[in-house]
Structures are given as structure tokens and as C-alpha cells.
Design a protein that fits this description.
The complex is a heterodimer of chains A (225) and B (136). In chain A, 83% of the residues lie in helices and 0% in strands. Chain A is mainly α and 225 residues long. Chain A folds into 2 domains: 61 residues, no CATH class; 153 residues, no CATH class. In chain A, helix 1 crosses helix 3. Chain B has 2 domains: 86 residues, no CATH class; 50 residues. Chain B is 85% helix and 0% strand. Chain B is built from 7 helices and no strands. The mean pLDDT of chain B is 87. The chains are: A mainly alpha (225), B mainly alpha (136).
């Protein structure tokens, strides 16, 4: 029974949370975060079987791969912007990927993370479907990565712009790139609300970071571990 | 008059049909590029996400006008608009990992706050520096 309810329930909860967010646009009321928390709570309260839910909601999970392919569309539409500043954007994204990798595999073990946890944290700044692919190829825990990505996105969307102004990043393009690199689509959506130029740079950065991470992280991992 | 209304309705239905075909064509194209990606990924010596290969192939096809933008605009925008929804089932999968999260909470909180803000700080200043150098 729950098998057939999973898909409509997920969609219903998501749109209810989206509505709530449109009424009260606080960063903490992020629709994705809220939907996940609500559904987890529901599983606990009603003692539902997650494997049943997973099977029922599979169509949504299956659509993630086509969604990544569809990211070619914004990348193509912003081609003129990328061409002009391609070198700077590429270097900035490369730095971001290397810093994320080093933080996960060299800083986090100091706090007691094992290799599996580090692998799950490495892709936290990349947009979810790609982060999950990277996590899978590094033998991380895919669900943990998905949650980390969403949390990282919420941090960037809520305090990102304020933090960047505080530390002296005043350039609009730089703000966009920084948030796109660290907080992917969730941060980008927030930046787009404030400034279109920064938003465009943010989406370019999020796509390039995702591609660079997907290319480099499995290679670095294979060489180093 | 009724005839005219009938005619309008028919045109509207035709328009709807056109949109549906347009949507379907875009979606099938995206799936086609995804399957190209899967094919190439299966033959690669290193594990690399098939969806990214599909993304790169579709981008190349768009840049070389092999695929016209308007063919995939509608379905592409639709799927990207509701992309957030697709993450939810995987996020719910977290309930299988509560023990793991509790035992690693320090790493998780630190990684979220430190790494995210550190990347923002570094990348923001780095890009600003590159930008200034280019201008001067």
C-alpha cells in the first residue's frame, strides 16, 4: 500500500513546503530540507518501511540523471559570459575543487573521520546528482553526501552573501563564483534573487565545479588512496 | 458563432498537442544523450558519472548546432525547475544512517561550517585578485 503512496506523498509534501517557503522565505525553511525532515519524521512516527518508500519513489530518483544532462542548457545559454572570463573562472573553480578535496581528506581525519566519511564529505559543495555520483565512485555513503550537499547549500544561501561582504569580497562576479563553488544550486538560487550578473556567474561556477570535481576527485582518490 | 468557438478549441487542442510533442522530443533527446553517456562510461577505465558525459555531449551538440536549443528548452527548463524535488527520496534515505551521523557529528558540523565558508572566502578573494590583475 505504502509503495503506491510514496510518489504522490513526496510530491505533495514538496509542494506544501514550497508554499510555506513562499510565505515565509527563511533559509531554514528550505523546501528540500523541510520535506526530508517531515518524511523522516513520518517514517518514525508511523513505523514505515524505508525500502518500500524507496521503491515507490524510484521514478524521482531515476530522473536525477536526465536532470544532470539538462544542465547543458544553462551552460550553453551563458556561453558568452563564460568565454569572456573563462580563464579566471576555471582557475577559481579548480582552486575550489582542490580545497574541498584537501579539507575532506586531510583536515577531517584530524577530527576523527575515517576514509568512508571523508569520501562522503569530499563532494559536499557540488550539486547533488553529481555529488552523489562522485561519492559513489569514491566509495562514500551516498545518503550522507546528499544530506551534506543540502546543508552546505543552505549555509551558502542563508549566510553566504553576508559573510562574503564581511570578509571583503565586494565584486559581484566574485561573490557569484564563490557561492556557486561552495553552495551549488541552492546558493545560486539565492544569488539570482539579489543580482542577475552574480547569479549567472554563480550558475557557471556551479556547473564547472561539478564537472571538474567529477573529473578530478576520482582520479586524485585513485592516486592518493 | 458556435462554429467559430469550435474552431478556436480545435486550434487550442492542436497547440497543446504541439507543446506535448515538443516536450516529449526534448525529453527523449536528453535521454538519448544520457544513454550515449552510459555507453561511453561503460568503456572508460576509470569510474566516471555517465550523466556528466551526457551533459558534455549535449553541450557540444548544442554548441555545434547539431541540436537546436529550442528543441530542449521546454523540457530542460521543466526538469531543472523541479530538480530539487528529485533529491528528496535520497535525503529520506538518511534515516538508515542516523547512527553514523551521531557518531560523526563533530566532523559533519565542522565540515559544513569550515569547508563551506573557507571555500567561499578563498575562491571569492582569488577571483577578485585575478579580475584586478586582468584589468590592470
Amino acid at each position: 500500500m505504502f509503495l503506491y503512496l510514496a510518489l504522490p506523498l513526496t510530491i505533495l509534501v514538496f509542494f506544501a513546503c514550497k508554499y510555506l517557503y513562499s510565505v515565509k522565505p527563511w533559509a531554514i525553511l528550505n523546501p528540500v530540507l523541510l520535506s526530508i525532515l517531515f518524511l523522516i519524521l513520518l517514517h518514525y512516527l508511523l513505523g514505515l518501511d524505508y525500502s518500500q518508500y524507496q521503491k515507490g519513489a524510484y521514478p524521482l530518483t531515476a530522473l536525477l540523471e536526465p536532470a544532470v544532462v539538462a544542465l547543458a542548457l544553462p551552460l550553453y545559454l551563458q556561453l558568452h559570459l563564460i568565454k569572456e572570463k573563462l580563464n579566471s573562472i576555471l582557475l577559481a573553480c579548480l582552486l575550489s575543487v582542490l580545497v574541498a578535496f584537501c579539507c575532506a581528506f586531510y583536515v577531517m581525519p584530524l577530527l576523527g573521520a575515517d576514509l568512508i566519511t571523508s569520501a562522503s564529505l569530499a563532494a559536499q559543495s557540488v550539486t547533488t546528482p553529481i555529488a552523489m555520483e562522485i561519492s559513489k565512485s569514491l566509495q562514500g555513503i551516498v545518503s550522507l553526501t546528499a544530506a551534506m550537499v543540502i546543508f552546505a547549500g543552505i549555509i551558502g544561501a542563508s549566510v553566504g552573501l553576508g559573510f562574503l561582504k564581511l570578509v571583503g569580497v565586494k565584486n559581484r562576479q566574485a561573490q557569484g563564483i564563490a557561492i556557486g563553488c561552495a553552495s551549488h544550486a541552492l546558493g545560486t538560487a539565492k544569488v539570482l534573487e539579489v543580482d542577475t550578473v552574480a547569479g549567472a556567474f554563480s550558475s557557471v561556477a556551479l556547473i564547472l565545479c561539478a564537472i571538474l570535481s567529477a573529473l578530478l576527485m576520482p582520479l586524485l582518490y585513485a592516486f592518493l588512496f | 458563432m458556435t462554429n467559430f468557438k469550435n474552431c478556436i478549441r480545435q486550434v487550442q487542442q492542436l497547440n497543446l498537442l504541439c507543446k506535448m510533442i515538443n516536450f516529449l522530443r526534448g525529453f527523449l533527446l536528453i535521454l538519448l544523450f544520457l544513454s550515449f553517456g552510459k555507453l561511453i562510461s561503460a568503456y572508460l577505465p576509470i569510474p566516471f558519472p555517465a550523466s556528466i558525459i551526457g551533459l558534455i555531449l549535449l553541450f557540444i551538440a548544442l554548441s555545434t548546432s547539431l541540436v537546436k536549443v529550442e528543441w530542449i528548452t521546454m523540457s530542460g527548463n521543466f526538469i531543472l525547475k523541479y530538480m530539487a524535488l528529485l533529491f528528496i527520496p535520497i535525503g529520506v534515505g538518511l534515516l538508515n544512517y542516523f547512527d553514523l551521523i551521531i557518531s560523526h557529528w563533530l566532523v559533519i558540523v565542522f565540515s559544513l561550517l569550515f569547508t563551506t565558508l573557507f571555500i567561499m572566502f578563498l575562491v571569492g578573494h582569488f577571483y577578485q585578485y585575478l579580475n584586478k590583475k586582468e584589468e590592470s
